[in-house]
Structure formats: structure tokens, C-alpha cells
Inverse folding.
């Protein structure tokens, strides 16, 4: 299967050279894939970095979002300009394993029905310094809950991670693209999968398709992300009220209230005993506050 790799980028000039280099060095014939980069209104040197590659590869296309912004809008622009039968979604901070595109292509040859989609594995880039907080995010923090998944199993809409995923373009065009109302907030990928599953989309997890997350983070940076999660949740529930009790952090319950009272104790216990579980309780309580802060914003 030929692939159209679609990557939305926003203020990622510092790392995007690595992202492109990984895609140029794939164990997959260059003539069988194109790379579509959509700059989403970056104000750093991202566009300059992109333009420096413009004439180096024939299979590289560069576009810019104009009237609307956000990953959904950027990916939609990429989809509309894709020429191949399978679209692969990657994020701008995902460094592709050399076999990633071959895995996506071979998988879609095997599952060639229009309504089959694939989600690949995402883990931290091996050469990053993985802090205890980053380790918790990957193993228990629920940012991307791959520990809950088994290879080759059918997964639900809430695991449709478009940092590393692929679908047939015709199925998308026929049944609906990303909802652009989410802007730069979260949940645009979950919302798409939820709608498409009503059209009989089947999503399978392939652990062999590996993308490395090159995005060091800390509790302060992640708090900013959780505000955007809260904003995205407000948009999601306005469109699909039935999801309010099914999506994480959707409301208060006994455990949430308990955590808000005792989170300083969790932090002390976690630090003394270097226990990720107790630190996790602390982080969840802190990030829930940020989520609510975002949810309440207009």
C-alpha cells in the first residue's frame, strides 16, 4: 500500500529536523510514500526549517493552515491534498522507527477493507533522559495508555492516538474528517474515532509500528496540556453528551474529592519511598485542577 504521511506542526522548529530525518531514512521505498507537512501558524523558525528541505525531496509537500487552526484543521488540509490510498498520521515530535512506514503499509495490505484502521506504539525516545515523572506518564499516567493494550487486539475510540495511526483515505472522505471546532485543544482524535466507529470503523493496535516521542516534559508543562484537555472536553461533551461519564476526568466522584484533600500526603509518601503509585495519586489530583480550570474557561 502506498502511504501519505500527514504531520501537523506548530512551533516545533527545534526538533523537526530530526522528525524529517527519521522519515527520510525509512526501510521503505521512497516512491511508495509522500510526506505532507502542514504548518499550523507557527511563529518560531518552523517554516524556515521546512523550507530548507523543500527542494531536497520530491516526495515532500508543505502547506499552511489559514482560516482555522489546530491539529484537526491541519490534518484535514493534509488529507485533502493526499494522493495515496492510506493516510498515516504522525505528530511533529514523533521520530519514526526505520520500519514504521513498512509496518503501516504491510498492515493495510493484510487488513485491506476500507473500514480498518491501525494505531501504532508510541514510547519515549531512548536517548532522552527519562525522569520519574515521564516514566509515570508512560506507565500509569494515562497520557497514552499502551500498557492497557495487547498487540493485534481491537481497540476502542479512546485509544485512537493520532500521534501514530493510519486509515484508508476513501473511508475518511466518505464518512467525515476531523471536527475543526476543537482548535488547538485536545480530544479531536477521540471524537473522530467515536463518529467513525458508528460507521463501522474497526481499529487494531500494532505494537511493531514504533514511533519515538521526542518531547521531554515536566509537571509544569503538563499542567498547560491539561488546561487544553479541559477545554477540549467541554467541546467534546457539547457535541456528544453521552461521553461525559465515559471519558477520563469528566467529573467529580468520591475518589476525586478524596484526592483533592490528601494530595500533599501522597506527594510526601511518594518522594520518601520513591513510589510512582503514590506520586501518581498526587499528579492526578493536581492535573484534575488544571483540567477543571480549562473546562470552566469560555
Amino acid at each position: 500500500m502506498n502511504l501519505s504521511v500527514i504531520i501537523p506542526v506548530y512551533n516545533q522548529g527545534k526538533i523537526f529536523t530530526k522528525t524529517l530525518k527519521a522519515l527520510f531514512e525509512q526501510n521503505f521505498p521512497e516512491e511508495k510514500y509522500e510526506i505532507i507537512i502542514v504548518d499550523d501558524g507557527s511563529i518560531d523558525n518552523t517554516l524556515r526549517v521546512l523550507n530548507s528541505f523543500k527542494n531536497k525531496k520530491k516526495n515532500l509537500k508543505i502547506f499552511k493552515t489559514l482560516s482555522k487552526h489546530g491539529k484537526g484543521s491541519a490534518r484535514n488540509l493534509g488529507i485533502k491534498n493526499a494522493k495515496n490510498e492510506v493516510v498515516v498520521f504522525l505528530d511533529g515530535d514523533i521520530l519514526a522507527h526505520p520500519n514504521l512506514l513498512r509496518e503501516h503499509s504491510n498492515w493495510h495490505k493484510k487488513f485491506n477493507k476500507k473500514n480498518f484502521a491501525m494505531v501504532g506504539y508510541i514510547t519515549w525516545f531512548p536517548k532522552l533522559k527519562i525522569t520519574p515523572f515521564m516514566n509515570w506518564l508512560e506507565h500509569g499516567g494515562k497520557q497514552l495508555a499502551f500498557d492497557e493494550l495487547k498487540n493485534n487486539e481491537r481497540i476502542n475510540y479512546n485509544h485512537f492516538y493520532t500521534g501514530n495511526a493510519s486509515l484508508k483515505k476513501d473511508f475518511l472522505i466518505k464518512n467525515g474528517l476531523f471536527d475543526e471546532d476543537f482548535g488547538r485543544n485536545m480530544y479531536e482524535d477521540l471524537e473522530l474515532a467515536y463518529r467513525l466507529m458508528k460507521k463501522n470503523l474497526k481499529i487494531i493496535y500494532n505494537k511493531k509500528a514504533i514511533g519515538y516521542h521526542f518531547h521531554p516534559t515536566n509537571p509544569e508543562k503538563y499542567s498547560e496540556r491539561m488546561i487544553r484537555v479541559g477545554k477540549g472536553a467541554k467541546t467534546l461533551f457539547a457535541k456528544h453528551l453521552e461521553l461525559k461519564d465515559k471519558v477520563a476526568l469528566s467529573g467529580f466522584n468520591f475518589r476525586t474529592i478524596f484526592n483533592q484533600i490528601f494530595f500533599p500526603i501522597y506527594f510526601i509518601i511518594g518522594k520518601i519511598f520513591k513510589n510512582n503509585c503514590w506520586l501518581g495519586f498526587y499528579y492526578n489530583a493536581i492535573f484534575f485542577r488544571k483540567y477543571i480550570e480549562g473546562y470552566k474557561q469560555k
Observations:
- The radius of gyration is 19 Å.
